[in-house]
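in:
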């Protein structure tokens, strides 16, 4: 088994490999281990084991804080782990297992939490002095318990980041609003279709056309210059999520997933000015007859290999990321440029999907505001209350940080709008 140990993160942060172990042998012996590690990949870590593991890490390290950010329909906790020193200049957020039947990302997240918490080397300490790492270890606990893609209501949480109808998506929206992560890294798994679609790892950046150009470029850099090379160096094959390729020429022949739909986390991350990246590990073994524990370890180790690239990116390009995410958050206040209701970076929007001259804002009646007030607040959308003559309504201006998000939520032409506000065109 490839080591699921602290050296994984140390190597990711170091240009050359460190010449000494990250922490002393006595520290390693005391470090908690996941159920997956204890069984050498024979089974996945259970929810009670995860809770005990996180509590042990929290107790052992001053740089770790464990908080409850929500509760599922079946009364399971949604937890956020914070690792780092205060104050930090940037924030990286890992979202693990939004789909309950995709466990390898969760296992990689758990060991990453432990490894960062226990690391003693100067390079990792310096990294954590500049970068806060946030982790949602299990973003869909009810689905995880049932072994299902969706949550307990059968909802795909990764299609709810606009409407925010699920407790899981609401908790994550609050984290995006309150912590304003500069990088959002979303860990998943996929089913292979050989020979066209069977890499160890696929990834994809925000394709939504409302993503700031510089943020979009940084997301592609994260993918193509850091995550894929790191995974390849660890011995894993990589490609672009959702694109089938000819096994001989490598040319794209079909797109089966990965559009610009704003309900998906990687896309809403871009709309909210974070450098987003989806990562997908292959479930099936590449060789028939591979023992299940061996394949499980490959799934987890491919995720860990990619995470090395993420942390290298955050360490080496942190200042550039700070600059582009900060500029993107301010750009909406200038209130210029079109808003896109469809299309993607590889699929130009149709004329009907482009609002060339957006309204100044949207007026909501009292009833409308009552219906969507919580969702607007969770997204962090700025609202002005007013009186519409029949009750207390609201006005939502476009001139704000989340300028492009407002029409996606309130314009009747947007495919997933929450309510149809009255467009104010008297700018």
């Amino acid at each position: 088994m490839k080591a699921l140990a602290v050296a994984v993160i140390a190597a990711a942060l170091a240009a050359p490999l460190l010449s000494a172990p990250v922490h002393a042998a006595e520290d390693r012996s005391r470090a908690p281990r996941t159920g997956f590690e204890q069984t050498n990949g024979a089974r996945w870590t259970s929810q009670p084991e995860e809770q005990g593991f996180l509590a042990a890490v929290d107790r052992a390290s001053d740089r770790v804080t464990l908080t409850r950010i929500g509760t599922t329909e079946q009364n399971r906790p949604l937890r956020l782990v914070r690792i780092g020193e205060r104050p930090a200049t940037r924030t990286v957020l890992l979202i693990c297992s939004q789909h309950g039947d995709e466990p390898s990302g969760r296992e990689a997240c758990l060991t990453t939490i432990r490894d960062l918490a226990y690391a003693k080397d100067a390079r990792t300490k310096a990294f954590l002095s500049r970068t806060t790492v946030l982790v949602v270890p299990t973003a869909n606990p009810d689905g995880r318990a049932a072994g299902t893609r969706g949550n307990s209501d059968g909802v795909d949480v990764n299609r709810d980041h606009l409407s925010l109808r699920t407790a899981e998506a609401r908790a994550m929206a609050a984290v995006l609003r309150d912590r304003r992560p500069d990088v959002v890294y979303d860990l998943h798994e996929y089913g292979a279709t050989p020979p066209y679609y069977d890499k160890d790892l696929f990834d994809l950046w925000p394709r939504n056309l409302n993503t700031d150009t510089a943020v979009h470029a940084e997301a592609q850099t994260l993918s193509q210059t850091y995550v894929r090379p790191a995974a390849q160096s660890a011995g894993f094959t990589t490609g672009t999520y959702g694109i089938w390729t000819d096994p001989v020429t490598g040319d794209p022949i079909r797109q089966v997933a990965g559009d610009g739909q704003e309900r998906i986390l990687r896309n809403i991350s871009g709309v909210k000015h974070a450098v987003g990246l989806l990562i997908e590990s292959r479930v099936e073994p590449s060789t028939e007859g591979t023992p299940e524990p061996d394949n499980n370890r490959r799934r987890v180790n491919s995720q860990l290999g990619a995470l090395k690239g993420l942390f290298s990116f955050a360490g080496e390009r942190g200042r550039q990321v700070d600059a582009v995410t900060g500029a993107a958050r301010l750009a909406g206040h200038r209130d210029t440029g079109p808003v896109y209701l469809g299309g993607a970076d590889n699929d130009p929007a149709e004329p009907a999907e482009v609002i060339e001259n957006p309204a100044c804002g949207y007026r909501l009646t009292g009833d409308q505001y009552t219906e969507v007030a919580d969702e607007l607040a969770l997204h962090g959308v700025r609202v002005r209350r007013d009186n519409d003559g029949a009750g207390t309504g609201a006005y939502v201006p476009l001139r704000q940080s989340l300028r492009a998000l407002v029409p996606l939520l309130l314009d009747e032409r947007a495919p997933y709008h929450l309510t149809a506000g009255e467009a104010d065109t008297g700018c």
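note: The chain has a mean pLDDT of 93.
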